[in-house]
Amino acid sequence: MPKTRYILHVDMDAFFASCEEAVNPDLKGKPLIVGGTKNDTRGIVSCPNYLARKKGIRTAMPITRALQLAPEGNFIRGTRGIYSDYSKRVREIFYKYTPLIEPMSIDEAFLDVTQTLRPFKGDVYELAFALKEDVKNTLGITCSVGISSNKVCSKIASKENKPDGITYLLKDEEQDFLHGLPVERIPGVGKVTLKHLNKYGIFKIGDLLNYDKSFYEKEIGMHSGYLLNVANGIDNREINTFEDYDQKSLSKETTLDFNTDDKHYLEKELYYVLERACSRMRKKNYISNNLTVKVKYADFTVNQKSHIINRFSNVEMDFYEDSLALFDKLYRKGKQIRLVGVRFGDLRDNDGNLQEDMFVKEDKFRSLVENMDKIRKKYDYNVIKFGKTFDI
User: One of 20, 102, 108, 267 is an active-site residue; which one?
Assistant: First the structure.
């Protein structure tokens, strides 16, 4: 009988606000709204603490509205650098408990602890509790943890006992836990998909089992197998630790939430990993002209195609058309894909003398991505996105 996996989803609690309170304890005890001062009338809320959330304040709410709900609150702009610093320190604590860590954003990660339970006498709850308390006692911030045999159940579970809580689902409890939850709790179910599902009387995750796969393929499209798998508590995705191969190459790849042959969705994901890889190149001050696109199909076979472009760069727009052309060679209608990735080879130090292209607005593109890098470093990578990464 296969050994049960133990996957943790660790989600930091009101992360930006918690970091600010850890640095400045005088902010505690009152609603805290990170995003702008009371005079920033055009600002938006980046992160409210839990006292502010009790007042009805939510992320992305206009500061003016938040001020109406909590006039007595502390309103501050984000402090440069502390969120990425705390994220790195949290990651260092994670490595004390397992080497298998998949960061999902600045404030959340998956951890596979299946092979590291011996110091805790095989008790995964004890490990999760020790990790949670380690973060709290070391950094003065809290996190919530979901535990199950797979990623999607753990991610959903981590939202159940916030803040500073643990939700542990035994293998035979996962389906029962999921079935009573609103269907919008499934990662990836947005407003458009939710509207379609509600139209057919699907309001709870358990309601998904009222229809077969052919219905979802016709009505919902690319979410078909994914939605049914979630309803059945099935998620076989592995932990991806995304490490650079060596200093001569740099890569980024992502395992999709569901296997699909939807070309628009796959091209969107391809651009996302291309963006992440180029951002990492700029951070390391590298440039490249050697691009590889990789796919892993649903049957776990892997294929990849490479191309040398006519100029060195670290700007994603310079590689986008070539990445699509390479992907076209790998794509087969009806053959589902579970992973997409890119790799840049022949890395060179960027000495500032990139070859200019008279037909490309080089300064405009470079200025744009460098400003995006600054915003993402201060807040979170996903706080700003290109149109190419959105569903249309």
Answer: 108
